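The instructor's notes for this session suggest beginning with a concrete chain rather than abstract definitions. Hand out the sequence below and ask the class to guess, before any prediction is shown, which regions might be ordered.
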Amino acid sequence: MNTLLRLTWLLLLCGSQVHADTASDADAQAAKALLEKALVYYQNNGDKALAAFSRQGEFIDQDRYVFVVDTKGVLLASGGPSSALIGRDVSTVLGPELRDSFKHAIGAPEGQGIQQADYRWQNWNDGKVEHKHVFYQRVGERILAVGYYLPRATPEQARALRNKAVNALVKDEAGTLKAINSLAGGFLQDDLYVFVVDLDTQRYVAHGTDLRLVNTDFAKVKDPDGRPVGEPILALMGEQDQGEYKYRWKNPVTGKVENKHAYVRKAGHWMVAVGYYSP
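After discussion, reveal the predicted structure:
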């Protein structure tokens, strides 16, 4: 199945409901405003609006655009690269693990207002698969949607990934460390990644983006400005089972040195850490 198509429909299949105040304010407001504009236009023009949604024009705002699917799974309009699939029943090309969830989502009752979801999507500006947030609403037999890209992960996502790694280590140490080092198992998510330190030896045993650090001395790690990072984090772990530490580090997505807020937690003799970035 086409990767772009699969990611398109993940907004309805796997998207988790969130509140508006967790979204990136400027982008969220712009995406929601574009959807509200499209909803008004559709309510005034009915299906005649579908052609306008598929043209390069007022319903495209940078990398934000309107797309519409009906409750039978047919793509009716898109201002983005999936426009080539207009008129196709895309539910038939989904894998069996996604098909039932898709049918359940498009069968949701009308009248629930604008809803939200998170999913992963290929950004047609840079070709990268990135985290995206979407606003969508059902109107009759149509579901109108607009999404936008999230440049950085949230604190909640960082803590969730850390906890996922801790739970995985408890169940299968060797398999989890191997998965982290081989970029498998979902331990690398956009600018979020896991690293693990053996508290007995104070050495890295796994790192989600830089294998050159594995087996090196974590206590000697410093930030790009020469300030200690490993030593104070180890001191923190000597006093408590989990905590937080702020420092400067290179963001693997933007390639820039940014502020990083790391969440660290013990799992036996391992220290598990995941951090999120901010400008």
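Then share the key points. Residues 18-149 form a domain with the Beta-Lactamase fold (CATH 3.30.450.20). The mean pLDDT is 83.
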